[in-house]
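Researcher: We're teaching a course module on how sequence relates to structure. For the next exercise, students receive a sequence and then see the predicted structure as tokens, so they can try to spot secondary structure elements on their own. Here is the exercise chain.
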Amino acid sequence: MQELFDKVAEKNPQKALELLLKLSEFALPKLRAIEVNNELEEDKHTSLDINIISTGVPLASSEADIVM
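Model: And here is the predicted structure for the students to work with:
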């Protein structure tokens, strides 16, 4: 297949690109439209637990402490 494509590309690069585009439909996933429902069926809550640990390294008190 590659040899055939290379021969076409030597003689007619435009045709080779057209063939590549047509063949890509079989290898690349197709885009599909999906329906988006913005109505809330129920309130959904997400929780996030944050644990702050002491590393012994002082935190910056201002941007001047960070930028050198």
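Model: If you want an answer key for the exercise: The CA atoms of residues 27 and 61 lie 53 Å apart. The helical segments are 2-11, 13-27, 63-66.
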